[in-house]
């Protein structure tokens, strides 16, 4: 499998782009003419610089407004192309992309256009070069790959072939399976991009909103399956015009791009096993079985307050680590690790971020297979020295500052609580009825959201839900949920556009994106609320206005609304189900807990309630006894 990426995808000057592209593991680049022209070096020097990075120039592009012109424009187009042929030979590439004409004088007629390409093929052949024709979705006469293919077919020249681009095909809602009947050796190059489904002008959508395969809503997998089924065995190249990426970190965007290609081609190989492209053999997407633990990094003062909060939520100290200053608190299947050890990752994370959730443990079928797949997708494995009697639990770095550890039942990893922890006699008030972790919510800058969602989607069997906009008094927060099919793993990604939002302040104050809240599930939220009241839990009060509006909006019975009001429970409904939520006050830099009950398959996250929750959190600040550190 040969991977490539267009230089337009990445921020920086050509040198910075090449460094990022090479570091991410690509084999080649599509050199965009603009990136070459604006760079101050000769074509030969640029070619050498690309090859010094271990990259090939798989394509030169774009050449515009070539086909279907009347004279004298036609002759001028051929002259222009001869100049570009010179340049290509200096750069050291043999393939140029001609995109379908938008020239006002361009004439239609398949045979006229095919004739132009046949003549061009002759000129290219003399120099050992090749020309690929791409239908732009907004081309004047050709805007469909089937028409571009008909032009190429009739040109009937070995140096003329077709270039397909997933955006132009899928953006126009053309059935990608129509590609299957094209001979693979006549497809000279394949460009891949995804995009979010937004109704807008095709050209504007293409030039500003494309994103990496898997990051948007187009069925790029189906498109790529169709291409691979033709026998095509050339490079798969990303061509992503995106305003945000152009201003983003070159390394991060290049890594996302490479990850998206590995993920995509792995999916394609599984669906079309007989393809000519050699795709590396990696474990399939990992099915998450649940959240095994959440770990806080804390100092002693913070840990004392956290313990009090956990106790008020019905958690009990369940074990103390055999060698480190680490405790595990438990309720139902939920485990919260409190790490105050003066060494190791948690300590470093605490120095950088203060009290924070530095680690999330997931239960999977095979921890080994999980890190193997993660490594193939470009994730960074994490290791730290293991003490006597301790287990080596496979881990990777997440996209932000935190770690992900993987626990499985296949090995003895699942017994870590027995092996590394001394049990503590459970005592204290009765538990609060919390059973498991319903979801974890990560807060990040809006620009990081696609990186995070690709990270989860490519590694785990998870699907994206539609993005919802949450209005915070300080700005907009976009929220997107990712879920495994049975709900064993639910993560919400909350992207803050400004630091004036509650979520944005959390990022600024804690120096980076991480888990901001954890939601625990209960089977009976009213019983939980009553139990927690007895154990001194300080919940987030909900204003009276909320309940007046709720009863008017949903036509609920007064007695039911009274019960919600008394316990400060927020409520939502969807087609079949109901959702109950209550919140803790915030602590640290704005961390909090949520308690939820899902009834009859409610599928959302209570988005209509988020503005009320945020307003109350902003108004009230941290709980008494839980000062901001
Ligand atoms: O937006 C464009 O003009 C443009 C140029 C070249 C391409 O390959 C493409 O897909 C779009
Ligand atoms: Mg293209």
UniProtKB/TrEMBL annotation:
<protein>
    <recommendedName>
        <fullName>3-dehydroshikimate dehydratase</fullName>
        <ecNumber>4.2.1.118</ecNumber>
    </recommendedName>
</protein>
<dbReference type="InterPro" id="IPR036237">
    <property type="entry name" value="Xyl_isomerase-like_sf"/>
</dbReference>
<dbReference type="Pfam" id="PF01261">
    <property type="entry name" value="AP_endonuc_2"/>
</dbReference>
<dbReference type="InterPro" id="IPR043700">
    <property type="entry name" value="DSD"/>
</dbReference>
<dbReference type="GO" id="GO:0046279">
    <property type="term" value="P:3,4-dihydroxybenzoate biosynthetic process"/>
</dbReference>
<keyword id="KW-0479">Metal-binding</keyword>
<dbReference type="InterPro" id="IPR041736">
    <property type="entry name" value="4OHPhenylPyrv_dOase_N"/>
</dbReference>
<dbReference type="InterPro" id="IPR013022">
    <property type="entry name" value="Xyl_isomerase-like_TIM-brl"/>
</dbReference>
<feature type="binding site">
    <location>
        <position position="439"/>
    </location>
    <ligand>
        <name>Mg(2+)</name>
    </ligand>
</feature>
<dbReference type="InterPro" id="IPR029068">
    <property type="entry name" value="Glyas_Bleomycin-R_OHBP_Dase"/>
</dbReference>
<comment type="pathway">
    <text>Aromatic compound metabolism; 3,4-dihydroxybenzoate biosynthesis.</text>
</comment>
<feature type="binding site">
    <location>
        <position position="594"/>
    </location>
    <ligand>
        <name>Mg(2+)</name>
    </ligand>
</feature>
<feature type="binding site">
    <location>
        <position position="191"/>
    </location>
    <ligand>
        <name>a divalent metal cation</name>
    </ligand>
</feature>
<feature type="binding site">
    <location>
        <position position="239"/>
    </location>
    <ligand>
        <name>a divalent metal cation</name>
    </ligand>
</feature>
<comment type="function">
    <text>Catalyzes the conversion of 3-dehydroshikimate to protocatechuate (3,4-dihydroxybenzoate), a common intermediate of quinate and shikimate degradation pathways.</text>
</comment>
<dbReference type="GO" id="GO:0046872">
    <property type="term" value="F:metal ion binding"/>
</dbReference>
<dbReference type="InterPro" id="IPR037523">
    <property type="entry name" value="VOC_core"/>
</dbReference>
<feature type="domain" description="VOC">
    <location>
        <begin position="290"/>
        <end position="409"/>
    </location>
</feature>
<dbReference type="InterPro" id="IPR050312">
    <property type="entry name" value="IolE/XylAMocC-like"/>
</dbReference>
<feature type="binding site">
    <location>
        <position position="517"/>
    </location>
    <ligand>
        <name>Mg(2+)</name>
    </ligand>
</feature>
<dbReference type="Pfam" id="PF14696">
    <property type="entry name" value="Glyoxalase_5"/>
</dbReference>
<feature type="binding site">
    <location>
        <position position="165"/>
    </location>
    <ligand>
        <name>a divalent metal cation</name>
    </ligand>
</feature>
<dbReference type="GO" id="GO:0046565">
    <property type="term" value="F:3-dehydroshikimate dehydratase activity"/>
</dbReference>
<feature type="binding site">
    <location>
        <position position="134"/>
    </location>
    <ligand>
        <name>a divalent metal cation</name>
    </ligand>
</feature>
<comment type="similarity">
    <text>Belongs to the bacterial two-domain DSD family.</text>
</comment>
<keyword id="KW-0456">Lyase</keyword>
<feature type="domain" description="VOC">
    <location>
        <begin position="436"/>
        <end position="585"/>
    </location>
</feature>
């Amino acid at each position: 499998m040969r991977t490539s990426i267009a230089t337009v995808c990445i921020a920086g000057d050509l040198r910075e782009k090449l460094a990022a592209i090479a570091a991410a593991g690509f084999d080649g680049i599509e050199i965009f003419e603009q990136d070459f022209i604006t760079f101050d070096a000769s074509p030969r020097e640029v070619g050498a610089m690309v090859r010094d990075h271990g990259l090939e120039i798989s394509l030169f592009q774009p050449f515009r407004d070539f086909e279907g012109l009347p004279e004298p424009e036609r002759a001028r187009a051929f002259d222009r192309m001869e100049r570009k042929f010179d340049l290509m030979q200096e750069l050291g590439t043999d393939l140029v992309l001609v995109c379908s004409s938008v020239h006002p004088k361009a004439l239609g007629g398949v045979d006229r256009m095919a004739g132009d390409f046949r003549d061009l093929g002759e000129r290219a052949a003399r120099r050992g070069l090749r020309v690929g024709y791409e239908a732009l979705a907004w081309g004047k006469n050709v805007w469909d790959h089937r028409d571009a293919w008909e032009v190429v077919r009739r040109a009937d020249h070995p140096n003329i072939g077709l270039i397909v681009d997933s955006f132009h095909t899928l953006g126009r809602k053309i059935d990608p399976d129509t590609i299957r009947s094209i001979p693979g050796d006549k497809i000279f190059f394949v460009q891949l991009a995804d995009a979010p489904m937004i109704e807008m002008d095709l050209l504007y959508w293409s030039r500003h909103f494309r994103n990496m395969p898997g990051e948007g809503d187009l069925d790029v997998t189906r498109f790529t399956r169709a291409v691979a089924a033709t026998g095509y065995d050339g490079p798969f190249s990303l061509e992503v015009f995106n305003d945000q990426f152009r201003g983003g970190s070159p390394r991060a965007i290049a890594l996302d791009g490479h990850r998206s290609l590995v993920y995509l081609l792995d999916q394609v190989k599984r669906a079309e096993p007989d393809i000519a492209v050699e795709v590396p053999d990696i474990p399939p997407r990992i099915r998450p079985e649940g959240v095994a633990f959440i770990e806080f990094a804390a100092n002693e003062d913070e840990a004392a307050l956290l313990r009090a909060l956990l106790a008020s939520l019905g958690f009990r100290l369940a074990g103390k680590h055999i060698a480190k200053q680490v405790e595990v608190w438990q309720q139902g299947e939920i485990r919260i690790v409190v790490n105050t050890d003066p060494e190791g990752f948690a300590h470093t994370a605490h120095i950088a971020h203060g009290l924070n959730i530095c680690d999330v443990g997931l239960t999977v079928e095979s921890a080994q297979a999980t890190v193997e797949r993660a490594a193939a997708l470009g994730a960074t494995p994490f290791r730290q020295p293991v003490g006597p009697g301790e287990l080596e639990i496979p881990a990777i770095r997440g996209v932000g500052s935190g770690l992900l550890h993987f626990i499985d039942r296949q090995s003895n990893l699942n017994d870590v609580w027995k092996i590394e922890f001394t049990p503590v006699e459970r005592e204290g008030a009765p538990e609060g009825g919390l059973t498991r972790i319903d979801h974890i919510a990560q807060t990040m800058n809006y620009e990081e959201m696609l990186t995070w969602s690709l990270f989860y989607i490519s590694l785990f069997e998870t699907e994206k839900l539609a993005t919802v906009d949450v209005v915070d008094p300080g700005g907009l927060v976009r929220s997107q949920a990712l879920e495994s099919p049975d709900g064993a793993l639910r993560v919400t990604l909350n992207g803050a556009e400004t630091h004036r939002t509650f979520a944005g302040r959390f990022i600024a104050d804690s120096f980076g994106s991480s888990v901001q809240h954890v939601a625990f599930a209960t089977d009976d939220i009213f019983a939980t609320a009553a139990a927690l009241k007895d154990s001194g839990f300080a919940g987030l009060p909900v204003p009276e206005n909320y309940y007046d509006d709720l009863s008017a909006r949903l036509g609920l019975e007064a007695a039911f609304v009274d019960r919600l009001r008394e316990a400060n429970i927020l409520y939502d409904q969807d087609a079949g189900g109901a959702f109950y939520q209550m919140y803790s006050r915030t602590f640290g830099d704005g961390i909090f807990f949520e308690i939820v009950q899902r009834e009859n398959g409610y599928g959302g996250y209570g988005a209509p309630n988020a503005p009320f929750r945020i307003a109350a959190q902003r108004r009230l600040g941290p709980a008494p006894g839980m000062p901001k550190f």
